[in-house]
Every structure is written in C-alpha cells, then in structure tokens.
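re: ur question from earlier - yeah i can do the single chain one, its not a big deal. heres the input i used so u can compare w yours
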Amino acid sequence: MIYLCQVIQDATDIVGSEYVQSDKYLQDIVRDKRYWEGKRQTIHQYEKKLEVRGERLDASIEEIERERKARKEKRKAEKALSEERRALSENSLLAKQKSLNSQHSTLSKNDTIRIKGTSSVGKIESISGKMASVISISKSLFTKHHSIFP
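and the output i got, formated as tokens:
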C-alpha cells in the first residue's frame, strides 16, 4: 500500500495534481455511466415485463367480457324460453278446458256416453244442473258432467 501511495505521489509531482484529479473525475464519470446504463437496462426490462402483463390483462378482460355477455344472452334466452313454455302451457290448458266445456255443454238427453274411469257405456236419461242420469246396460247411474264423454 505504501508503494502504491508513493507511485501516485510521484505521478502527481510529475504531471501535476490537476491532471491526476481530472483522471479521477474521468474514472468517476465512466463508473457513473456504467451504473446509469445498468439502471436504464433494468428499467427497460421492467417496462417490457409490464407491457406483457398489460397485454395478458387486456386479453383476460376481453375474455371475461365475452363470458359475461354469453351468460347474459343465455339467461335472456332461458327466460324467453320459460315464458314461451308458460304461455304454451296456459294456452294448452285453456284449449283443453274449452274442449271439455264444449263437450259438457253439448250433452243432451239420449246421447250415448262413456263414464270417466270406467269402460261402462250408457245413454243420458236426464240432465239436471251439473248432474246427469245415465242408464247403463246393467244399472242406472247419476254422475257429474265432467265425468262423462260423448
């Protein structure tokens, strides 16, 4: 170490302290330049990583929005289908009821009918309100209109 200090002192005496100081400044500048170049390169790498992550986030957001839109459309279609089924069901029930009502209202004396839930066939003897007197081959029955079919 003493030898190195002696060399530096001798060089300073020969070239002057200003030249040695300027050389030291140049070395400091070169060192600082390398440091800042490293920092700039690190920042550039981080920027690239951030850009890639941003692109992935954008793609994920687009995918989520597509999925949300698809789920919304599916719910809308399911709701429309449910409403259509309900409407069809209501229309079907109304049609059945109208058919039954028209059957019951057209029954009259001497019509041949079958009693609901049986295989018995008979003739209407008389109708009183919602009740009908039916003569079967084996016996006379009283039943409600909705239980007999022409």
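The first strand starts at residue 112 and ends at 115. not sure if urs matches, ping me
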